[in-house]
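S.,

Sequence below, as promised.
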Amino acid sequence: MTRRRAPGALLGGLLAAASVPPWGWWPLAFVGVALFAVVLRDQSPRRRATLGLVFGIGQFGPTLWWMADLHVVGWALVVVLEAGFLALAGLAATRRSGLALAPALVLAELLRSHWPFGGLPMGGLTLGQAAGPLAPATRLLGPLVLVALVAFVAVSASEWARNRGRSPRFLAHLAMGAGLVVAGVVSPHGHDTDPLRVAAVQGGGVRGMQAVDGDPARVFDAHLAATHVGRDVDLVVWPEDVVDVEGDVVGTPEGEQLAALARRTGATLVAGVVMGEDDRFHNVAVAWGPDGRPVDRYEKNHRVPFGEWVPFRSLVERVADVSVIPRDAIVGREPGLLRTPAGPLGVVISYEVFFSGRARSAVGAGGELVLVPTNAASFRSGQVPAQEVAAARLVALATGRWVVQAAPTGYTAVVGPDGRVRSRTGLSRRAVLQATVMRRTGATPYARWGDSPMVAMTAIGLAAAALSGRGRTGPFRRRRTSPATAPRTPPGSQP
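The prediction came back faster than expected:
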């Protein structure tokens, strides 16, 4: 039975993958999850787990293909690991209650966003819905609610089709989903204060080159040459990791050039700096004021495993070549906030954009605009940059802030608080993206509550599904007896 249903599970995963950028065909997520629900129905726990694994391979094989640029075997291992979370989702979904699939998928997304090594939320269903009609619900309950809504609609639609249009739950769940979206649209999401003229700089260059093979001086010079902006700009944003120095950047030739650039433009300048420290390094966003003096810095909190640090390095070095990651990044501890003459700026550096909690922390600390200095130049394709833009759209919705993303080879983008991309560059070419954005204050419901409501609802949903399934097939099911098999009462006894 599992062998016959596995192709359906694989196809469902591939359809879900097609909803994720760079493809971004968001309606296919509903089709893929509906197909997954169909193949899970009436299966044993072991078979549901196996089918979940197959579905996960179909989803994460394509959406994490960018890893193959670095290491094909590593890509395969990570795909199987991430698919394991969907095997857990299949196991958590009950035999007959298809609606248990929604909290089960949310649980899988929640777990894989935290474990192992801090999690890997890339390639998930949430990114595919950033451009879809469900996205405004992110303001209420964060990106996780998008997984639940996709599953509810998909499963209800599959039951409606199975029952030939006689499933009142389908309309009820559509109404529930629509209600959450409308509530997200009208919910508090902050308000404008002051306009800010921003210039995000993209130096351009060849993609697919590892940091250890590149020329830091050439990257730095490219961004200096690209920064042709007038004195009408309030804020200049450079990407992550385009300034590479040993020791503190202040006082180095690069630091002096950046200070002079801030003075020349008369703007606050924020640049991504890597500062070496013996066998480790700092990945920081440093801000210079219009007078050329450094005013604040933020150090990246959430490092990229096997990109900025190697877990169990001494052990891994015995079995694999980690020369492309010669030293580990130091972990920052402060919230992502830069206090600058341009205003309080929230910052999430590169990989942190996929973790909504980091942006929430930055806004909670006072950020009135969110900056995303990033560097995805190591990848030949546009897959990672496209997923980063989708994540930035969810950050904008979840926090109610404008988001400005700067990348050395793209995509550099400006996203409004409604999640719409206002402007975006192409890949590889040199460009400066200028836009007038608004500093904003106030908080969305998600910025206030975080993921706690979704975690609680997921736990309640799984518990309810487990009790429901037990009532159908377990000891709480009331057995029916026919007259032929019912026990007879002896004559004269009391019933």
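The chain is about 45% helix and 15% strand.

Coffee later?
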